[in-house]
Design brief:
six-stranded parallel β-sheet; 6 helices; 6 strands; single chain
């Protein structure tokens, strides 16, 4: 059974280590799992109920919702900005939480991982992301975690896919999320 996992990255920077981590997840996905990296979070306007009108939703937000509806699971990558979740990722969660009671997360499995420069690897931001996505309707898989500290030095000359330890951990994360998604699809 093929499972589609939508990856959302909370950093817009071209050289983002979280983006590199997401690229590695795409390459390391096990057979039967397709990790799709969503492009375009920067183009989505801040959530505003006044513009979230059926049939007239801004195109970038509609594209995000369509990608989310087509997904069986979500893999969110969150760096830590000032001790919490980046605005771009929170905005995506807000768009996907609507319409109220029928948002795109729809009880689908969600894992939150990431890397940050600090000694804890962005764990506060990842915890805040789990909280927000759970309230937004996602089924957060609490025991799938990966917080990689020291990103600036660890990935200064090595892409995460070429770091054996990170590649092994990331492969396990995607495989476990794939398993949860497969169970949800089969149910």
């Amino acid at each position: 059974m093929s499972v589609r996992i939508l990856a959302l990255v909370g950093s817009l920077r071209a050289g983002s280590h979280n983006r590199q981590l997401a690229e590695a997840a795409v390459k390391l996905a096990p057979e039967g799992a397709e990790v799709v990296l969503f492009e375009g979070l920067a183009d989505i306007p801040f959530y505003n109920e006044d513009v979230d009108i059926e049939g007239n939703v801004p195109a970038p937000a509609a594209e995000l919702r369509a990608a989310a509806q087509a997904a069986d699971a979500f893999l969110l990558f969150s760096p830590e900005y000032n001790g919490t979740i980046p605005a771009v990722l929170k905005n995506a969660i807000d768009w996907l939480s609507r319409p109220y009671g029928a948002g795109a997360f729809g009880g689908k499995p969600v894992a939150v991982i990431g890397t940050a420069f600090g000694q804890y690897g962005g764990v506060w931001a990842q915890d805040d992301t789990r909280k927000a996505v759970g309230i937004a309707g996602g089924k957060v898989i609490e025991d799938i975690k990966l917080s990689i500290p020291g990103s600036v030095t660890r990935f200064a000359e090595t892409h995460p896919v070429d770091d054996a330890e990170v590649a092994a951990q990331l492969t396990e994360v995607v495989a476990r999320l794939h398993g949860h998604a497969g169970e949800a699809v089969a149910a």
